[in-house]
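Chain X:
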Amino acid sequence: MLNRQSQDLHAKSRRARVAEHRRGSRLIGAGVIAGSVGGLAMIPFGVMLRRGGYPVNVYGQLLLEVLLGRAPVWALVVEHFLISWTLAVPLAALPTPLFHRSWPISLLVGFGYGALIWALVNSLVLPAIFGHSTPW
């Protein structure tokens, strides 16, 4: 009887680990999708801002120069998407009812999250890391 209970507990534990792994895999997959969409959506805005004379991707270039000694275009692209994917995982972890209502709601949630993260990272976190003053 004890052996049977032990086997049942082991099977339940294994099922729980498999379920947790699947949830984590789905979360990472959703983060990659959301980050790819967000990363691609940011490119036209960056191009427009750069053409308008505004500094774009200053901290991305600084980070690569610190890490690689220079900032080649391929490294900027890789960095852009790695950061987009990483920052999209918390968005993917939001409760699913926010995303299953309609496309406009999903886009609004994604746009709002992206704008908030962009503002926090670029106006507070990165200036503090690089010793620059913040715009606030």
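Chain Y:
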Amino acid sequence: MPYGRYDAIVGVLRVFAQMGNYALIDRMANALTYRAVESALYDGLRLINTLIRQAEEITVGGKTVKAIDYAKREDERKFRRLVLAKEEEGIRYVEVPSKLPDEREIQMFLNEVRKGIKGLRAAREIAMRALALETGR
């Protein structure tokens, strides 16, 4: 699904929003330096790669999906934590992103961030777009 500029980066950040893990989104949105954005982005990419390697295949709605995290309605505590995740047939799940950012997209994004205040605003915009897509705001 296209999100606009830097689709794959937004897609990765959406995974964290779906899981209720806002730390990386907050770090990027509130960054005051290029290095802070770069560090948050690379931390997120390392973490998403680890999560993808640990993902499990589950069957939901008659189709098999690769899920980073999931919960059944009976597991109320975990089910509530995944409030922004997709839900079908009493299962909430966070699907593996369809696309990870390639080196070109990462470098374009970081080059934009290097532009000072204007670039930091771009980083904030990307982080907030990921969150807005999940919360509907």
